Amino acid sequence: MSTTNDQLLESVTTCLENIKVRTVTKAELRKLLCRGLGIGPEVASDVVNTFFELITQSLNAGDDVKLAGFGKFMVRTKAARPGRNVRTGESVQIDSRRSVTFMAGPKQKMAMAPQPKVRIKRKKRLPRYAQPVHYCDEVALVNVPPPNPGPLRANMQQHMALIESFL
Predict the structure, then answer these.
(1) Does position 72 have pLDDT exceeding 60, yes or no?
(2) What digits encode the pLDDT tens for the residues 10-23?
(3) DSSP string, 65-88
(4) Given this model, what pLDDT does residue 56 score?
(5) The model's pTM
(6) Same domain for 53 and 1?
């Protein structure tokens, strides 16, 4: 019995790896069952539909659905709360409602655990005063300290003198 389950799991895993679509649909599940179990498409369709109908019925009855090794679907009741109409700004009472939440099981969490990040070393950026400067289609790396505040003309003449001394 376990060899059949292992073969089924291996077959389904192989099929899932070959899926090019990011979202697995009911149609994809039917195809996986057909390939994995060797059953006809009508039977696979009935199995998938029955599975989801049973889950829906259980959740509608207020019961939690726990799938061992995968996770747990739970029904949560959200209380009534005040809200606001965005267009008019009028206060509105939002009714209480039920919603379905999913909590992944430990095995699923481990399977989805992020891989360790690879740190990429970035090139160190040159200080602002050592950036490449373009002069007449030529590039020169000018290592001049940042200008001191003062008269514009004096600073410009000092920089030009320093630049010419490097060239």
Answers:
(1) yes
(2) 666 666 566 555 77
(3) EEETTTEEEEEEEEPPEEEE-TTT
(4) 93
(5) 0.51
(6) yes
Q: What is the pLDDT of residues 89-111, one digit of tens each?
A: 899 999 999 999 999 988 888 88
Amino acid at 116: P
Does any domain span residue 84? Answer: yes
Is residue 122 in a domain? no
The Cα 4–Cα 101 span in angstroms is 32
- The pair of three-digit structure tokens given for residue 143, joined into one six-digit string: 């290592």
Give me the count of residues in the chain: 167
Structure tokens at 110: 């481990």
Q: What does each C-alpha distance from 86 to 13, 89, 135 come to in angstroms?
A: 47, 5, 57
- 102, part of any domain: yes
Q: How far apart are CA 31 and CA 11, in angstroms?
A: 12
Pair of tokens at residue 112: 């989805």
